[in-house]
Design a protein that fits this description.
heterodimer, A: 110 residues, mainly beta, five-stranded mixed sheet, 45% strand, B: 116 residues, four-stranded antiparallel sheet, 0% helix, globular
Chain lengths: 110, 116
């Protein structure tokens, strides 16, 4: 699995877009990038995943650079409920195992 | 929306006792996992389970741990003789294989295990 690097913390104003970066410079060609978040001590919540192309769903957008060495998760209109630890994971494990890092603590302020 | 459920939400046990943590994965998922998170630390992978067998396990998952899918719906984690350091939040997850190496994994709310 590729090592991922995320900033330890970020603040975001409510209603603004939150752009969360992730560096995965050693990613291999078949490794997917997954984003999860964990609100307080709840179970990690799936947000989005991608391989090469940018992806969008009802929660967020995922922008992957052309060289795939980094990605950005975009929460288009952050709300207070988006305050959480966000994890970026790059993996192609045969059985779907995820290795979580420390993630980015995002605090959305009014 | 389908979800992974776990029981109990909180379990307190004495050191040396056996505990069984229970999970009901999402019904059409075929891949099952246990993770744990010690307070203030990272989420750690314990074990993955597919086709009634362990497919991968971490160094944490030693002989004190076992997993089972006793029927078509439940997935359990047993700790035979609990230690103080087993105190953690235990998360069950289940996954669908989306093809081409992609998984969509969903986590349960967790069981907080406190060993005294």
């Amino acid at each position: 699995d590729a090592k991922t690097t995320q900033p330890p913390s970020m603040d975001c104003a409510e209603g603004r877009a939150a752009n969360l970066p992730c560096n995965h410079s050693t990613i291999s060609g078949n490794e997917y990038v997954y984003w999860y978040r964990q609100i307080h001590s709840q179970g990690p919540q799936y947000i989005i995943h991608g391989l090469k192309n940018n992806e969008t769903n009802e929660m967020a957008s995922l922008i992957i650079t052309e060289d795939r060495k980094s990605s950005t998760l975009i929460l288009p209109h952050a709300t207070l409920r988006d305050t959480a630890v966000y994890y970026c994971i790059a993996t192609t494990d045969s059985w779907g195992k995820f290795q979580f890092g420390a993630g980015t603590q995002v605090v959305v302020t009014p | 929306e389908p979800e992974v459920t776990q029981t109990p939400s909180h379990q307190v046990t004495q050191m040396g006792q056996e505990v069984i943590l229970r999970c009901v994965p999402i019904s059409n998922h075929l891949y099952f996992y246990w993770y744990r998170q010690i307070l203030g630390q990272k989420v750690e992978f314990l074990v993955s389970f597919y086709n009634n067998e362990i497919s991968e396990k971490s160094e944490i998952f030693d002989d004190q741990f076992s997993v089972e899918r006793p029927d078509g719906s439940n997935f359990t984690l047993k700790i035979r003789s609990t230690k103080l350091e087993d105190s953690a939040m235990y998360f069950c997850a289940s996954s669908a294989f989306l093809g081409q190496g992609a998984y969509e994994q969903y986590f349960g709310p967790g069981t907080r295990l406190t060993v005294t």
